[in-house]
Specification:
This protein is mostly beta strands. The chain has a domain at 1-46. Helices cover 9% and strands 16% of the residues. It has one helix at 39-46; strands spanning 4-5, 11-12, 15-19, 26-30. A two-stranded antiparallel ribbon has the order 1-2. The longest helix has 8 residues, at 39-46. The protein is elongated.
Length: 85
């Protein structure tokens, strides 16, 4: 850990605001720390089994394109349903 000091020689620890990537809670962590989960979630995540990738690497599943892509959309008209998005 890199130690920083102010003009008077006092040790300064830099902190940053971080959100937990599991529960969304906010906390502060030391700048540059690679921690992405809060203390509570870190314990929960540590109990999960490790992922075992097939053939040595992790890949995302690929599926067929959407059914609507198989049909020409010429002449098809759609009306907005109204309301707020």
């Amino acid at each position: 850990m890199k130690r920083n000091h102010d003009d008077e020689g006092n040790e300064v620890i830099r902190l940053e605001l971080k959100y937990c990537e599991r529960c969304g809670g906010l906390w502060v962590r030391e700048c540059g720390a690679g921690v992405v989960y809060c203390d509570h979630c870190q314990r929960s995540v540590a109990e999960l089994p490790a992922a075992r990738p097939k053939r040595g690497r992790i890949t995302l599943p690929v599926r067929r394109k959407a059914v609507m892509d198989d049909f020409p959309n010429e002449g098809m008209e759609f009306e907005a349903a109204g309301g707020a998005a």
